[in-house]
Amino acid sequence: MKQILTLWQARNREYYRDKGSLFWSFVATPFMVIVLAIAFSSDNQEILRAGIVAASPSAPAGTPFAGDDAISLIVYRDREIAIDRVRFHQLDILLSMSEQNRYWINPDSSKGRLLEKLLLAQYPAEWQKTEISGRRVRYIDWVLPGILAMNMMFSGLWGIGYVIVRYRKNGVLKRLQATPIKAWQFLLSQALSRLTIMLTVTTLVFIGCNQFVDFMMLGSYWLLLLIAIIGNMAIIGISLLMAARTASEELANGLLNLISFPMLLLSELWFSLDAAPAWLASISGWLPLTHIVKAARAVMLEGAGLAEISQHLLILLMMAVVFITISAKLFRWHKP
Amino acid sequence: MSSILEVKNLVKKFAAVRAVDGVSFAVPRGCCFGLLGPNGAGKTTTIEMIEGITEPDAGDIFYRGSPRGERFSLESGIQFQSTALMDYLTTREVLDLFARLYPDHSPIGKLVELCQLQSFLDTYATRLSGGQRQRLLLAVALINDPTILFLDEPTTGLDPQARRNFWQLIQHIKEQGKTILLTTHYMEEAETLCDYLVIMDEGKIIAEGSPANLLQKHFDHTFVCLDREVAQPHLEKLEEPTTVHRDHVALETKSVNQTVKQLLGMNIDLNSLRVRTPSLDDLFLKLTGHHLRE
User: Fold this and answer.
1) Which of A3, A168, A179 to mutate to test the interface with B (most CBs of B within 10 A)?
2) Which string of DSSP letters, residue by residue, matches A295-332?
3) Rounded to whole angstroms, how far apart are CA atoms B254 and A159?
């Protein structure tokens, strides 16, 4: 234990003495949050979004607004998810033709009221209206879990994997190998150090940004912490796997980019994949960041409890266990 | 004197190359044991197999008569040929870090004094000069008060003054009765520090013994040296066997007086004349046909 704590402390020192990593953590991320908050402060997303509940992946023939360039029509299989989208102003109107021409709008949404007028004028029928109230989820509320998760991902991937590869290349690992320390103790110390750093940084950045932008937070902070811990472990696992034998920093950089880019694009950090093809959504389901972001959003924006996010947590936990176990087996101290 | 370490028929291959090819030797307790040879001779591979860093393809290694185990790990100290240290840790923090990785360790203050680290205790290890860094790495190797110390080319890349300072440190460590296994390609280092030498070339041992015995065994003459441009026109007339070096010609002689008389008789300018005893480099040249530092 003393050895793990010693290496944990040494790695922490390296982190907080490196001005570059401090800048990225405490300046760049809040800067991004505040810029996005200002940029999207008004409801200036021009496109109107209508949803349709349907069993098939494409909208049934004769669906209102189909083919209208000004309106994005999104098909939802899960009715409850779609209703929540309306509740939080992420969807302006939701239609269900199979439920006797039912539609949902949020009375606080001006775009919702506009689409309602269009619907009734252009598609006269016996429409049944349901109103769903809920605080408007601003883009910044929606994107914040993504930004924090992205920060965690970069910090986890480069802060542990890249460092281990550098240490293997310059002989630090070989020097440690010549001490009584075991490989698992070294890896655990690095993982714990990164977990401590990421949790501290994420908490401080969240509190700091919350002073400027009052984020929507409907769920439990403890649950958010649990997501951060398990999510971090999954990312650390991927990072350790990449670093298990790699001895070239250039190769490590390439591999980390290869790992991070799909997550950056497909984990719903910046935009929802509701309107994306099913195959893209299924790829997204394999990425740990997707589960971190979805679980965090569910807690923050929908007030979800443990049971509702347990599936995400279970997947993340399994990823963490599998990646960490394989990387511990593959790990080599020195260059092959 | 009983041996503390014994290696038998060590073999290591890298692709088609036998980097270490059937090496056997025994290191007496309390001895400074040197592996001398040019770059690529297999010294580092040999020492790293003993340290447990590289897995041998064949052969046995015994520490205190048994295969190496946890005791070896706790009682050995290692200084590698090239090692970086953690970023953003000071000399003092590096020492504390490594001290806490062992169940018992030497008093840090004693190591600081022995390795002369006082002036840069609060400097980041990555900002040290070559000599300072090697002294810190030596202190790290000594942190567990090892019985046997492995030093792999410890003075490579140091300037002559830093190298001599380092030799003095190793002399002090020798005085403490520790066994030292040292690799080097500097013959002067081997002659100054080592009690016993194994000379390696192309993965094999080509000679072994104490420096004095090795030279006594292979040479019964001294060298009379003259500048090459002075001696070269007269080479055919000289009776003694000669070796032409880059800048001088060495005449092997059993009687310096007779050789000097002969040279005077030939009316050769003796202003550049030097007399020297054979060195390990001469021995290496004799055994392999090339110099240690080629």
Assistant:
1) A179
2) HHHHHHHH---HHHHHHHHHHHHHHHHHHHHHHHHH--
3) 68
Residues from chain B that touch A2, judged by Cβ atoms under 8 A, are 100
Question: Within chain A, what is the greatest distance between any pair of CA atoms?
Answer: 81
Task: Kindly give the interhelix angle for A249-266 and A288-302, rounded to the nearest 10 degrees.
Answer: 40
> Does position B122 have pLDDT exceeding 60, yes or no?
yes
Residue B11 has pLDDT above 90, yes or no: yes
Beta bridge pairs of residue A74:
A51
Considering only CB atoms, which chain B residues are within 8 Å of A14? Answer: 86-89
Most trustworthy range by pLDDT among A154-158, A308-312, B219-223: A308-312
Nearest to A6 among B70, B84, B100 (CB): B100
Cβ contact B97–A10 (<8 Å): yes
B166-183 pLDDT, tens digit per residue, is 898 888 888 888 999 999
Place of tokens 């509740």: A87
| pLDDT score, position A39 | 67
B53 in contact with chain A, both atoms CB, cutoff 8 A:
yes
Yes or no, beta carbons of B100 and A2 under 8 Å apart: yes
Residue B85 at interface with chain A, using a CB cutoff of 8 Å: yes
The reported pTM is: 0.77
Cβ of B51 within 8 Å of Cβ of A174? The answer is: no
Length of chain B: 294
Torsion on CA atoms A170, A172, A177, A183, rounded to nearest 10? -100
Look at residue B12 and give its three-state secondary structure: strand
What is the SS3 assignment for B76-142? EEEECCCCCCCCCCEHHHHHHHHHCCCCCCCCHHHHHHHCCCHHHCCCEHHHCCHHHHHHHHHHHHC
User: Averaged over B149-178, what is the pLDDT?
Assistant: 87
Shortest CA distance from A8: residue in chain B: B97
Lowest mean pLDDT among A42-46, A99-103, A294-298, B237-241: A42-46
Q: Are A16 and B89 in contact (CB under 8 A)?
A: no
Q: Average pLDDT of B179-203?
A: 90
Q: Which residues of chain A does B89 touch, with a Cβ-Cβ cutoff of 8 Å?
A: 10, 13-14
Nearby residues of A129 by Cβ (< 8 Å), 6 or more positions away = A102, A103, A104, A105, A116
Q: What is the pLDDT, as a whole number, of residue A99?
A: 83
Mutate to test the interface with A, among B73, B87, B143 (most CBs of A within 10 A): B87
- Which value does ipTM take for this structure? 0.80
